[in-house]
Amino acid sequence: MVTDTRKLEKDCIFFALKGDKFNGNSFALKALELGAAYAVIDEDIDASNPRLIKVDDVLTALQQLAHHHRLQFSIPFIAITGSNGKTTTKELVNAVLSSQYITYCTQGNLNNHIGIPLTILSIRKDAEMAIIEMGANHQKEIEGYCQYAMPTHGIITNCGKAHLEGFGGIEGVRKGKGELFDYLRKNNGTVFAFADYEYLSAMYAGIDNVVLYGTEKGRIVGNVAANQATVTVEVTHGFHKPTAIHTELAGDYNLPNILCAVAVGHYFELPDIKIVDALENYMPDNNRSQWIEWKGNRVIMDSYNANPTSMKAAIENMASLKATHKYLLLGAMMELGEYSVAEHAAIIALLQQYYFDKVVLVGGDFEHTQHPYLYFPNALAAKEWFLQQEITDSLILIKGSRSIGMENILA
Questions:
Q1: I want to staple 43 with a disulfide (CB 3.0 to 4.6 A). Which of 25, 210, 241, 396 is the partner?
Q2: What 8-state DSSP symbol labels residue 401?
């Protein structure tokens, strides 16, 4: 199944989706020329061509086909959502489960109304596990995904201050993310939840099958044992004996993500050693909690996304780390709507509680806050300044919302 002619493979099916700036129907014939077996369309193109399949709506047809394909499997389907950490958690859970089971997993960030059905359709008959990441920025979105993904297990990593514009505040975030637990409650599913987040207990109330993990209670209990270049977590309950897991992840805020992967692996009866090896061998990439060595400096590249909750965690993590010099380059946080200026001001207030050698703010509503820091309107301007500095033996955090493009500072 393909929606982009640039990614066509011989004998695939091309789905002619429409977007704000493109109409896939215009590429249907080209897709056939390039080797697609069929093209699914929803406009009149060439009624005589037997390889063109016309439907009322291509996106609906794609999702219906994904639902049909999903019905062919009786394996665990694990859905993962949350405001922060869902992609990292997905990757860690995948690393653990795939060490023992044939596991299919959302690739990259294909976690929306197009990516989820494509992920489901990519699952082959040899599958023993499936992991589906679900992103959302408004209510009823996850509810819709569950109708055709039909998860048997679910994880809400957390409910933070993300996509406040679409959800309408933090309670709206919890209601929207909670649609996953609502589905599992109705369908006798199993939930994995971080016991330290008390608000999650209200969200999974009424669900019979709950697997808890946390710093003090749960089937898996663990804490950060060391947080310097990378995070070491000690699991004190759940394994046969207390065990240290030396990860390659940057940031102590990854503790819940790591414990979640441990809990899932333990639940599905993986040996302790396989869980540990999988987590220790996982190498973060895609600008998420990623360590980079750059010109004699250590860089935490966490520029894939940012919201008030993850930004706060990243700043506090930087404050806790030992380093000769510390530099923070922070891009604006998007999709906060009426809360945006206040949330950017709150980040300014947090920064002023700590000493950093230099703080650089980039774009968005940082422009509309009072602060003593260096400000640039965009990442390219920040990059020009940054490359002129003689920075050595320093710890550098680069973080911001995806649309700010903070990763370009080192590009």
A1: 25
A2: -
CA distance 354 to 247: 27
Confidence of residue 104 (pLDDT cuts 50, 70, 90): very high
Give the integer Cα–Cα distance in Å for 191 and 260: 11
**Cα–Cα separations (whole angstroms), residue 304 to 97, 131, 334, 410, 411:** 25, 21, 12, 14, 14
Complete edge-to-edge strand list for the sheet that includes strand 243-246: 103-105, 129-133, 77-81, 153-156, 190-194, 209-214, 220-227, 231-237, 243-246
- Residue pair 80/89 in contact (Cβ under 8 Å)? The answer is yes
Instruction: Give me the residue label for tokens 């520029």.
Output: 303
| Dist CA 116 CA 74 (whole Å) | 18
What span, in angstroms and rounded, lies between the C-alpha atoms of 363 and 46? Answer: 48
Return d(Cα 92, Cα 260) in angstroms, integer: 9
* pLDDT tens for each residue of 280-289: 999 988 778 8
User: Within a 13 Å sphere around the CA of 269, how many CA atoms are in the beta-carbon half?
Assistant: 0
The model's pTM is 0.92
pLDDT at 35 over 80: yes
Q: Which helix (DSSP H) or strand (DSSP E) does residue 86 occupy?
A: helix 86-97
More confident position, 282 or 20:
282
The sign one gets for the Cα dihedral 91, 210, 197, 206 is: positive
Q: Are 233 and 244 in contact (CB under 8 A)?
A: yes
Residue 302 β-bridge partners: 399
Does residue 57 register a pLDDT over 80? yes
For residues 358 and 326, what is the distance between their CA atoms, to the nearest angstrom? 7
Q: Which two tokens stand for residue 17?
A: 């989706």
Question: What amino acid occupies position 111?
Answer: N
- CA separation (Å) from 11 to 37, 39, 107, 352, 356? 4, 10, 22, 59, 56
DSSP state letter for 251: -
At residue 229, the pLDDT reads 79
Number of Cβ atoms within 10 Å of the Cβ of 23: 13
